[in-house]
Specification:
This protein is of the alpha+beta class and 422 residues long. 16% of the residues lie in helices and 32% in strands.
């Protein structure tokens, strides 16, 4: 299969010339099925990110849509963006009116720029993260999840500037990466305990340069003269993870949808997390127009609820703390021995591979093509427990999709694709 991606308006294309050739020889994945809205376990903590579009929670004409959506999702912690002039207490009161409970069972914090966090867990500490002159500063909130997880959780609710404002948006995500560095033990702020779960969520407005997502995931600060540099931000020395939820009722992913717009649906809203200490159990984006009538009725929703409420869709992730044995467990119950990331992805000539091994032992790390043929062996021997950083340069190999393949002595396998551009 030969692929080329072309923007018909500007003429921009990937690759710049020619096409990317992909040979497929792997088994097809199992048939897709709709994601249930329920939690896998009742004690999972459900986080939700939702841009409510221009003060939507206080708009009488839209409150019914938001009420049904919140009741169907039933989050424990929700990061709102664009709440407008509504106060934190008003947002909390609205959530409480939908989900029940008393004022003593819900907590809220508002940051300048319309960011509100509403939580079933007490707010222990807050911090304003500002990287540019934009009024859309980002909010860090330490919430007391110790009753559920035995540790607090640091939540960053973000809303960097939109559209063509790449420079200001980069400043904002640089500031977030610098804050994550500084808040850890030994940093300039230093008030966060080691292994505290960290989640970043919000309308990230990533419509421009791809490196902005790299900054959030990898700590790759661009404006180093102002913010300094940062190591890989997860506690184990690896990159943070992108939740990447699909639409609950479609095998697709988008979080912004406006049927009257000339812009196509896109993914603007994210949940990013430290996968060294927490792991997702269920994840989805709620999009009611694609849901079947029986599913809508069971959830108490109507077909146009998400479209009429906002041009953004609620992004939902259920998390739990990882077992401390060193082996993480995927939602389907299979052992995920290796944590594996590659960046940048797509890459041009060279990629950095971040591998975390939960136990010492012999490991083979190889690069393969789509046919499974080994092109390079990066490691073939013992590795100690913990994080390892490897480099691979494709040299004279053509552009295309390659795979990092990691296997241990017991035959447990992890694979990560890397796309190389011309």
């Amino acid at each position: 299969i030969r692929l080329a991606f072309v923007d018909r308006t500007s003429g921009d294309r990937i690759p710049d010339q020619g096409s990317i050739e992909v040979q497929l020889s792997v088994p097809l994945p199992p048939a897709w099925s709709a994601t249930p809205l329920d939690r896998r376990q009742p004690d999972d903590i459900r986080f939700t990110s939702y841009n409510v579009l221009g003060g939507g929670l206080s708009d009488p004409s839209r409150r019914a849509y938001f009420s049904r959506i919140l009741a169907a999702v039933s989050p424990d912690v929700i990061g709102f963006q664009e709440v407008g002039n509504q106060s934190a207490n008003d947002a909390r009161a609205f959530v409480r009116s939908v989900l029940g409970g008393t004022d003593n069972e819900w907590f809220a914090h508002k940051e300048v720029g319309g960011l509100v966090v509403v939580s079933r867990f007490p707010v222990l500490r807050t911090y304003r993260i500002e990287g540019s002159s934009s009024s859309q500063a980002n909010s860090a909130v330490l919430i007391d999840t110790s009753s559920r997880w035995g540790t607090p959780t640091l939540l960053i609710n973000a809303h960097p500037p939109c559209c063509r404002n790449d420079n200001a948006r980069q400043l904002e995500v640089d500031a977030v990466a610098a804050f994550v560095r500084d808040v850890k033990p030994g940093g300039a702020l230093g008030w966060l305990e080691a292994d505290t779960p960290i989640l970043m969520l919000g309308d990230m407005n990533l419509v421009g340069e791809a490196r902005q997502l790299g900054t959030l995931l990898n700590g790759d600060i661009v404006n180093a003269g102002r913010f300094g540099t940062a190591p890989l931000p997860d506690w184990d020395g690896s990159a943070m993870a992108d939740l990447q939820p699909l639409i609950a009722s479609l095998p697709r992913v988008f979080t912004w949808y406006s049927p009257g717009s000339s812009f196509h649906p896109g993914r603007l809203d994210f949940i990013i997390y430290t996968d060294s200490v927490i792991e997702p159990q269920n994840r989805f984006v709620l999009f009611t127009p694609a849901m079947t009538p029986d599913v809508l009725a069971a959830a108490g929703l109507e077909e146009d609820d998400t479209t009429l409420a906002s041009d953004h869709l609620p992004v939902v992730g259920d998390f739990r703390v990882k077992e401390r044995s060193g082996l993480s467990t995927d939602p389907d119950g299979s052992a995920a021995l290796f944590q594996l990331n590659a960046y940048p992805n797509p890459a041009r000539a060279q990629a950095t591979i971040q591998l975390t091994a939960p136990e010492a032992g012999p490991v083979r790390v190889a690069i393969t093509d789509a046919l499974g043929r080994e092109l390079a062996v990066l490691v073939n021997g013992p590795l100690h427990r913990g994080a390892h950083t490897l480099q691979w340069n494709r040299g004279l190999l053509p552009a295309g999709i390659y795979f990092v393949r990691v296997v241990n002595a017991r035959g447990q396998l992890s694979v990560r694709p890397i796309t190389f551009l011309p």
